[in-house]
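Q: What structure does this chain adopt?
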Amino acid sequence: MVDDHELVRRGTRALVEMADDMIVVGEAATGDGALAIAQELEPDIILMDIHMPNKSGIEVTKELTVLMPQCKVILLTVYDDDHHVREGIRAGAKGYLIKCATKEEIINSIRTVNAGGSLVPASLVGKLAEPQRSYLPDLSGGEREVLRLLADGSSTKEIGEHLVLSLNTVNFHLRNLYQKLEVRSRTQAIKVGQQAGLLNVAKHPVGMG
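A:
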């Protein structure tokens, strides 16, 4: 069971252990903690939050799919938008539940996934059937400029010189940008920016002399 809020973990644990055929063998509050405890305890099922410190539940799910394919992940989150549903299933999650799910829905999803099936609530199935829309984070003008310059290969110093900003201001924009895009590196930021259509601007040809 992985969630950065202790009260959520306690409540979900109590709910799950009401089922006679289930036991919670461990808990984690961060993405890195989830990877460590999963490899130590080798659980059958992991109930995973998405938004957590240091590594998102989607990132952890991708890694677990490679490291421990026998361990099945059910994402239990507050996000019900098509971007997160698609990314979660694409990462390898076998189930996707919203935190307002009933006890019966959570227990049923665990049993279904443990038996080899997959489960997405009917209310979310339409999200997977809809044409994919670009996920457009609410970036400020400065953050968009920083993202564009990152994609051009500019260093932090070069970004500051180009935008006439101090290094502290550039780093401030970078931190906000990473948080809004839910990434941890330049490479990931550029990738998400491309997927979201934030970098679909024709580049000026480079002059060769």
